[in-house]
Amino acid sequence: xxxxxxxxxxxxxxxxxxxxxxxxxxxxxxxxxxxxxxxxxxxxxxxxxxxxxxxxxxxxxxxxxxxxxxxxxxxxxxxxxxxxxxxxxxxxxxxxxxxxxxxxxxxxxxxxxxxxxxxxxxxxxxxxxxxxxxxxxxxxxxxxxx
Length: 146
Ligand code: DAT
Ligand code: MG
Known about the structure:
The protein contains eight helices and four strands; from the N terminus they run βααβααβαααβα. By secondary structure, it is an alpha+beta fold. The site of 2'-deoxyadenosine-5'-diphosphate has 9 residues, from helix 7.
């Protein structure tokens, strides 16, 4: 397996529920390298570009409203097999998310409150969308990775 990059985003519900530290911790414990991190109020245009493959779906307007309803936490992580590992790491937060009374459609249909890229190609694409030069830094070494 190869060194990949993935885009991870704690959505507004996850920020509200205080899941940010837990998510970061899981990636750090796995030894992945943090290459981007910020709290961000997403403009509508960026949300639409990020989810453009879902544009024709009936829930698209709700999804865009939701993702722009409050700040998200954007992260980029690098590592061997990080795309597939990330989907497992963020999937395992499900029990925390399954609280009743949420306004969020996607939670009601069992979707997660953390986004993770579904392929290395989309990882690169999404990191390019969400980060600008200066808030994405991959050219440094982590001592524990040797
Ligand atoms: P994932 O978030 O697992 O990558 P996706 O890319 O298919 O799933 O969808 C992106 C987001 O769109 C998802 O996190 C929540 C929303 N969504 C997807 N399918 C939905 C549905 N059937 N009803 C409501 N929201 C949905
Ligand atoms: Mg997806």
